[in-house]
Specification:
The chain is of the alpha/beta class. The protein has one domain (10-215): Carbon-nitrogen hydrolase (Nitrilase/N-carbamoyl-D-aminoacid amidohydrolase, 4-Layer Sandwich), CATH 3.60.110. The protein has helices spanning 22-38, 59-62, 77-89, 175-183, 200-215, and strands spanning 11-13, 43-45, 92-94, 98-102, 107-115, 121-126, 132-135, 139-142, 154-158, 162-166, 186-190. Strands 1, 2, 3, 4, 5 and 6 form a 6-stranded mixed beta sheet that branches. Strands 9-10-11 form a 3-stranded mixed beta sheet, covered by helices on one side. A two-stranded antiparallel sheet has the order 7-8. The longest helix is centred in the N-terminal third of the chain and has 17 residues, at 22-38. It is globular and about 45 Å long. It starts with 10 loop residues before the first strand and ends with a helix. This is Carbon-nitrogen hydrolase.
Length: 218
């Protein structure tokens, strides 16, 4: 699959601890993205729900309106912050994910936004596979209580480098999505995530290695 990557790409993955203050979360993200690009990163990936606390009770409170696109700054301060940051850093930026509210259908989504070095929106991915788990005595979490699933494989063309695929966290557990993306020419599968400690340590690296090996991609 090396032929799918046109030239070397330096990728940075940002880890963040998010709090209740969205503006502070965005400021921390900006600082880390600029740090990464100052060290030569061409593509920077932020975490899942990087602009807000993660949880069903938080999704409606922190959700932003993204449609019609582009939204106004009051509808989605995160959209505009990411667009400006990509342009400032002159890098491709995968904005982890944020809670999205779609007014016309009264639905919430877990959504990733991808921006180009000129600040333009290149792609939007809504998390397809919602995280529902119930392990007695350890963890119970049901994204489906609030969120609706997306319905597409998301490929992004980076003209200098090739195609990448973007999905979110729990999407990594489903090999079919990765297989479709690889068959459509992606050299890299990107899964911004916020795995829990119950299953995360056991499965995160295992799943990433499996998807990469199955499809002979990064």
């Amino acid at each position: 699959m090396a032929k799918l990557l046109k030239k070397p790409l330096k990728l940075a993955c940002v880890q963040l601890s998010t709090g209740a203050d969205k503006a502070a979360n965005l400021a921390r993200a900006r600082s880390k993205v600029l740090e990464a690009t100052s060290k030569g990163a061409n593509l920077v990936v932020l975490p899942e729900c990087f602009n807000s606390p993660y949880g069903t009770k938080y999704f409606p409170k922190y959700a932003e309106t993204l449609q019609p696109s582009p939204p106004t700054e009051s509808q989605s301060p995160t959209f505009h912050a990411l667009s400006a940051l990509a342009k400032e850093s002159k890098a491709y930026l995968i904005g982890g994910s944020i809670p999205e509210y779609l007014a016309e259908s009264d639905k919430h989504y877990n959504t990733s936004l991808v921006f180009g070095p000129d600040g333009s929106l290149l792609a939007t991915h809504r998390k397809v596979h919602l995280f529902d788990i119930d392990i007695p005595g350890k963890i119970r979490f049901q994204e489906s209580e609030i969120l609706s699933p997306g319905n597409k494989v998301t490929l992004v063309d980076l003209p200098e480098y090739g195609k990448i695929a973007v999905a979110i966290c729990y999407d990594i557990r489903f090999p079919e999505l990765a297989m479709v993306a690889a068959r459509q020419g992606a050299f890299l599968l990107v899964y911004p995530g916020a795995f829990n400690l119950t299953t995360g340590e056991l499965h995160w690296k295992l799943q990433a290695r499996a998807r990469a090996m199955d499809n002979q991609v990064y």
